[in-house]
Fold these 2 entries.
Entry 1:
Amino acid sequence: MTHYLLRRLLLVIPTLLIMLTAVFVLVRLVPGDTASVILGDQASAASLAALRARLGLDQPIYVQYLTFVGKVLTGDLGQSLSTGRSVISEVLQVLPSTIQLTVAAIAIGLFLGLPLGIVAALNRNGWIDYASRVVSLVGLSFPAFVSGILMLIVFAIQLGWFPVLGNTSGSGDLVDGLRALVLPALNLGIIMTAYVARVTRAAMLGVLTEDYIRTARAKGVRPRQLVMTHALRNSLIPIITVVGLYFGTLIGNSVLTEIIFNRPGLGKLIIGALNARDYTLLQGLMIIFAVCVIIVNTLTDLAYGLVDPRVEYT
C-alpha cells in the first residue's frame, strides 16, 4: 500500500506540469488585451505599455511560462488584476460554498441512486426496472441549467417552498442556509442519481449471476444479507469509479448551478474573471479545479483496496 501511494504521488508531478502548461496556454487564448480591459479603451499607449511591463506581459512567452510555473510551485498564484487581492484569498472566500454544494449533490446521488439501482437489478425486466431506467434516462437528458430553471419556477416561484435566490444575506442562519441549499443540491444530485443508478444496476446484475451468490442463496443466507454484504460490496468498485470520475463534471455543473440560483461560489468568480479579463484569477481557478480532480482521482484509486481486499497495490 505504501509503495503504491508513493507511486501515485510521483505520477502526480508530470500530471501537474501538463495541467499547468494547458492552463497557461488556454488562458492566453482568451480574446482581448488584459491591459486594455484594466485601463479602458481611452488609455494612452504609454500607460498600456507600462502596465504590460509591470505585469510581465511584454516578456517572451517562454519567460512568462517559466515565471508562472515557478510561482505556482512555490504556492504563489499571484494577485487578482481586478481586485488587487491574492488569488488564494479570493478563492478561499467562496470555495467552501462550492464544496458544500458538491458534497450535498454527491450525498443525494448516492442516497437515491444506490437503492434505485439495487431494486432495479433485483427486479430485472420488471416494471420497477423499466421505471428506474426511464428515470435515469430523464436525469441524464436534462442539462443542469434547464432542470435548475424548472426547479426555480415550480418550487421557488409558484409553490414558494424555497428561496428564489441563494443564501447571500450572510446572516449565518443554519435553517436559511439549508433551505437555500436544497434546490441547487437536488438539481445536481438528480443528475448524479441517474449515473449511480445505471452503474449500480449493471454491476449488481453481473454480481448476482456469480457462483458464490448462488451458493450463498442455497445455504440459506437471508436475502438482505445476501444483497448488502455479498452482492453490493462486490459491486462497489465501478460505483466508486463513477463517483470519482463524475466529481470533475459535478464541479463544472456547480458553476452553472451557482449562477442560476445566485449562490456565492466559484461560478460567480469565474464569470467575473472572464468579464474583467483577469487572467491571473482565471489561472488560479483552473489550477485549483485541476488539483481537486487529481486529489479525488488518487483517493478513488486508494478506495479500491478498502472495499475489495482482492485488489493488490503492486
Note: The chain has a mean pLDDT of 77.
Entry 2:
Amino acid sequence: MSQRQLHLGLFLFATGYHPAGWRLPEAVADGAFDPEFLRRVALKLEQAKFDFFFLGDRLASAAEEQFTFPSQMVRLEPFTMLSYLAAATEKIGLIVTVNTTYAEPYHVARMTASLDYLSRGRLAWNVVTGADPRAALNFSREKHWDNAKRYDYADEFVDVVKRLWDSWEDDAFIRDKSTGVFVDESKVHAIHHRGSHFSVLGPLNVARPPQGQIPLLSAGTSERSQELGARFSSAIFTGEILLEEARRFYASIKGKLARYGRTPDELFIMPGLVPLVGRTQEEAHAKYRELSSLLVTDFNLGPLSNRLGIDLSGYPLDGPLPDLSLSNHPGDKARRLVELARRATGHEDITIRELFHYFAATARGHLLIVGDPERIADQMEEWFVNEAADGFNICPPYMPGGLDLFVDLVVPVLQRRGLFRTEYEASTFRGHFGLSRPENRYAKRTALQGAAE
C-alpha cells in the first residue's frame, strides 16, 4: 500500500453490543447458534474487505447477565465455529480466542496449527488470561489466579506454543517415493522445554503452520498485559472512549516495542467501536432513543457515579445533571464523558436518565458513536490520523441491521477517502496487515552456524 490505511474487523456480539439490541423488531435474537446467520455475517464482512472476523470467549456464565450483556452469556466454542466459517469463506482473517490460564500449550499449538491449515493461513490467536473468577470453579480450582501469576503462566505458555509451531522446518518433508524417505529427520526438532510451569518435549504433531508463526493478539490495560502485547502481539484490542486517553495508550504501547527488537509498524492498535448508523443524523438519534427505551434496568446509579466522579444518588433521574466541576476526577474528564452522551442523545440538556442510558450502552468500555455515515467516518478518521488507532474492532449495536448499515453506508465513505481498501491484496491474516512470514528459528540457526564456519 502506498499510504497508511485503516484495518477493520468485526467483534461478534450475536445479539448486538447494546444490551437491548436483540429486542428491536428487526433484530435477530438467536443468531449465536444459527449456522446460516453466522455464515451470512462472515460473507458480508468478506464482501466489504474486512481484515477479520473475531469471536471472543469466556469460560463462565450466569443467567442474570441477560439484562446487561446477553450476547456474552452463551455462544459457540470458538475453534468449532471458526472451522465452519473457514470452509464458508476465502479471504477474511479469523481470530480464535484461547484462555491460557485453563489450557495446555501442546493442545493449543496443535489446534491453532490445524485451523491455520483449514483456513489456508487466515488464523490469528487472541491470547487472554481471563478476568472472571467464576471460571476457576469450572476447572476444579478454588480461585482465579492473580494478575502476576496469570501473566507469568501466559508468557511461558506463548513461548512454548511458538517454539512448537517451528518444530518442523518448512522443507522437512521429502516425500520421496523412490527412496521411501518421507521426512528429513535433521529438520524435525524436539523443543526440550523445561520451565517454571511447563515441561514439553515436542515436536508438534502438525507441520509448521502456513503462516509460519500464527499472529497473536491481546487485550487489556494492565502493565503486564501491555508488556505481553509489546513482546508478542500483532494487534492489541483496547476499550478507550476518550481521544486523549487513546492517544496516550497508543504512544505507550508503541514506545515499548524497541526493547523487544520490534518496530511500530509490526503492532496495530484497534479500539472497539460501536457505530449506530442512520441514513441521516435524525434517523440515528431516533434509533438510539428506541434502544434506550428497551433497556431493562433498575437504574443503579452507583457505577455511573464512580464513572463521573460525582455521587448521583440524591438527584432526580429526570432532572438536569449536577455541576460537573464537583467531580473528583482530575481535569475535565467528567465533562468529556458527558459530551459523548450529549452527542449520542442529540441535544445538550440531557438528564441523568439519559446519561445512564449512554453508559449502560457502553458499560464494556467501547466507544459508541451515533450518527450518519459521514459523521461516523469523520470520527474514525480523527482517531486514525491522530494516532489513537490503527483501525477498529467494529461492535454493531444490533444484528444484523447494525452491521449492514455500517458496511453499506460507512465503509464506502472510508473507501472514497482512501482510508480503507477496495480489494484484498493478500489472502492470509499476516498479509492483510502487511506482515511478512517469519523464518523458522531452527532453519535460521542452522544458516547462521553454516555462515560462521
Note: The chain has a mean pLDDT of 94.
